[in-house]
């Protein structure tokens, strides 16, 4: 069996790759038209928060679950605490002033999910012998954990923009509880991925609307002109 240090290094690298993939797509599509410095700063703070949250989840949820002790009460306490902390971060004056709660939430969720994934991948590699099924599980955790948390926190930020503050907290608590339970259940029953992935894909379709709400109106007009110019240029090239 590989040393714990080597396993930790592998899980860290894989988790970082998952975080970088989670940034691509929506965040790169609108890059330059939202509060990018605040979003990048949330990557750092999310790593700190995610490291603590990941340690709590690993110590009080995953390890007891592996030992057949259940995770119901601890799950409620930990996920509710995370939802409240996320809400406090997204209601900071710097974030509210620019209306960037959705994009800030996305960046925060990426790093928190990445840290959760890092701890989870470490346990997978520590307990199971390396084979195709384990490699597939590691790949799914690295890809889904950061992006799923980003979707949840982005939705939280969008709810705050709509004035649904405490409702956003309860939704984040609910979805975080389901997500962490699903991820840890997939540790023993890989078929659970069949239920996690479709839900995430449905949320992914709504994510552009949440991020769009964080873009100031003048920037929206500029972005539409850029897209229109790019479309006309493509049409001329095709002709």
Task: Give a structural overview.
The longest helix has 31 residues, at 36-66. Helix 1 packs antiparallel against helix 6 (101-127) and helix 3 runs antiparallel to helix 4. This protein has 10 helices and no strands. The radius of gyration is 19 Å and the shape is globular. With 239 residues, the chain is mainly alpha-helical. Helices cover 84% and strands 0% of the residues. The protein has helices at 4-23, 26-29, 36-66, 72-90, 93-98, 101-127, 132-161, 165-185, 193-212, 217-238. It starts with a helix and ends with a helix. The model has no long low-confidence stretch (mean pLDDT 88).
Key features of this structure:
239 residues, mainly alpha, 10 helices, 84% helix
